[in-house]
Amino acid sequence: MGRVPEYLSITALDALLADLDVGEARRRQLGMVRGELRRALLQDALPDTARGSLRRLLEEGALGAYLRLAESGALRSRLVNGERPRTSVATNEIRRQCVDVLREALGLPVLQLGGGALPLQPTPEFGDLAALRRRLAQDLAGHMTPGQVRLTAVLALVLDAAPRSGELVEQRLDDLAPGNTAVYVERRPQHGSSQAEAGGWFELSTLSRAALDRWLPLRQELVMRAHGTTKLWVSLHPNHDGVLDDDGQATLRPEGLPLEENGLITSYRRGRGQYALGDLVPVKLEQLRRAVIAETPPAVVETAELA
Fold first, then answer.
1. Nearest 5 degrees, angle CA 38-CA 42-CA 48?
2. Given a cut of 70, is residue 163 above it in pLDDT?
């Protein structure tokens, strides 16, 4: 079997990706694009100059050829029912957004190759948010599993401050004001967003303070088993890092480690069904966040008000 060629442009792309400050979801999307670009080069589908220069790889001509081929499904890494069908409209839009992220990171003007923003998925009705608040308050008054405690605290903070999933997992204990009266959110909008957003301190409701009163002691117990972290959101169960040793065994990581974005999103989706919240919260956390913003955009509070 012949040696698989390495391309200078892909090596430079890997270095660029390593330095990018993006969320976990966007990093996975960029990884998909990286793999597709490499497969396009292996198929000799791009100009020869794209092999040796990242700038040439990200030129409009090379990207146009790449996008047409990728959208056809020819660059899929896996077969679907024995075939490589065309990729979805949503995947095509994500791919084009990633291309603009890469060009912007390299100092090139974005091409805005996307066909326009995808329609936003429906958000809950405003009355549903009030019903959600009532339901969470009722749950806090009774017995709750650890997973329900954490999810309730997450939902309560989203209702008050509308953080994104990537913003939630970056929060630390010192992002809570004394008495849990406010929370600091460092805004991390996705690349490609034209709307600047201010981070800051957001006042927390009685619901959030009660939810945090349940979560923080539980969090402390979990963290003690993992030798400590200052992250606000931590894992509830042992898991593994996906790396197998020589015997084919995975190394287990204890509970109480910082919760990653994918874990937060997974716990949200599972919690909808597990805790019978499907009629009160949407499928995606982002939909809930947008509903909160549409109802009453969270207002930043002055630092002096927290004293």
1. 90
2. yes
Residue 213 has a pLDDT of: 97
Question: Whole-number mean pLDDT of the chain?
Answer: 86
DSSP 72: T
pLDDT given at position 117: 46
What is the four-CA torsion angle of 129, 130, 136, 141, rounded to 10 degrees? 180
Q: Which carries the bigger pLDDT value, residue 189 or residue 206?
A: 206
Which of 163, 164, 155, 161 is closest to 131 using CA atoms? 155
% of the chain with per-residue pLDDT over 70: 84
Nearest alpha-carbon partner for 200 in 304, 287, 130, 285: 304
Distances 229 to 174, 176, 209, 224, 256 between C-alpha atoms, Å = 12, 15, 21, 9, 8
Q: Would you say residue 191 has pLDDT above 70?
A: no
According to DSSP H, which parts of 59-118 are helical?
Answer: 60-71, 89-105
DSSP symbols for 276-294: T-TTTS-SSHHHHHHHHHH
Q: Are 70 and 36 in contact (CB under 8 A)?
A: yes
Domains in the chain, CATH or no CATH each: 8-105 (no CATH), 126-306 (1.10.443)
Tallying the residues shown for the chain, one arrives at 307
Task: Report whether pLDDT(304) > 60.
Answer: no
